[in-house]
Amino acid sequence: MTDALPTSVPVTRPDAARLTVLSGPTAVGKGTVMAEMRRRHPDLWISVSATTRPPRPGEVDGVHYHFISHERFDELVASGQMLEWALVHGRNRYGTPRLPVEEQLSAGRPVFVEVDLQGARQVRAAMPEARFVFLAPPDFDELVRRLVGRGTESEEERARRLATAREELAAVAEFDHVVVNDDVTRATDEVLALMGLAAR
C-alpha cells in the first residue's frame, strides 16, 4: 500500500520573496535537484549548511557542507550565528549560517537554502516573507526504494530516517508549494519557475 501525497498546496504567501527554502524527506532527491539548479544557473547562490556529521565518500568540505565539530557548532548557536539548526535523526546537527544568507539578500541576489522540516519552521519564524517549497516523492514506496538504493545507511538508520520522513510528509500543508520529484528535469523546471528563473 502506498501513501498518497498531494500534488499542490494553496498559495497563501506572496511569491516575491528572494529567499527560497527547499525541504523534503530523506532520499527524495533534494541534492540532485539542487545540483541541476546550480548547473543551469551558476549565479544562483545556494547556502552551504554546517553539520557535525562526518563527510560521506566524495563530499568536499565547504562545497557540500561545512563539516565542523560539535564544540564549534555550539559556539555558532550560542552566538546567534545560525539562521536555523536542528538535530537530525537523533544523531547529528545541521544548520544554516546566518551571515552569508543576510549578505546575499542585502545584495539583492536570489538565495536558496535546503533544510529539514525543523529548519524550515525556524526560517519561517525568522523570515516569514520567504518562499517555502516541499519536494515530495511520487509515493512512500518510491522513497523507500531510493533510500535503500542509496546504500549509505544501515538498516537501523534507514528505519529511523523513514520514521522521520513520515512525520515530514504529514507536515506538507505548512509549505507554500509542493513539487513532486517524479522526474529531476521536470521538478527542477518547476522549482526554477517558482523562483521566477528561466528553466534553461
Automatic annotation (TrEMBL):
<dbReference type="Pfam" id="PF00625">
    <property type="entry name" value="Guanylate_kin"/>
</dbReference>
<dbReference type="InterPro" id="IPR008145">
    <property type="entry name" value="GK/Ca_channel_bsu"/>
</dbReference>
<keyword id="KW-0963">Cytoplasm</keyword>
<comment type="function">
    <text>Essential for recycling GMP and indirectly, cGMP.</text>
</comment>
<keyword id="KW-0547">Nucleotide-binding</keyword>
<dbReference type="InterPro" id="IPR008144">
    <property type="entry name" value="Guanylate_kin-like_dom"/>
</dbReference>
<dbReference type="InterPro" id="IPR017665">
    <property type="entry name" value="Guanylate_kinase"/>
</dbReference>
<keyword id="KW-0808">Transferase</keyword>
<dbReference type="GO" id="GO:0004385">
    <property type="term" value="F:GMP kinase activity"/>
</dbReference>
<dbReference type="GO" id="GO:0005524">
    <property type="term" value="F:ATP binding"/>
</dbReference>
<dbReference type="InterPro" id="IPR027417">
    <property type="entry name" value="P-loop_NTPase"/>
</dbReference>
<protein>
    <recommendedName>
        <fullName>Guanylate kinase</fullName>
        <ecNumber>2.7.4.8</ecNumber>
    </recommendedName>
</protein>
<feature type="binding site">
    <location>
        <begin position="24"/>
        <end position="31"/>
    </location>
    <ligand>
        <name>ATP</name>
    </ligand>
</feature>
<keyword id="KW-0067">ATP-binding</keyword>
<feature type="domain" description="Guanylate kinase-like">
    <location>
        <begin position="17"/>
        <end position="196"/>
    </location>
</feature>
<keyword id="KW-0418">Kinase</keyword>
<dbReference type="InterPro" id="IPR020590">
    <property type="entry name" value="Guanylate_kinase_CS"/>
</dbReference>
<dbReference type="GO" id="GO:0005829">
    <property type="term" value="C:cytosol"/>
</dbReference>
<comment type="similarity">
    <text>Belongs to the guanylate kinase family.</text>
</comment>
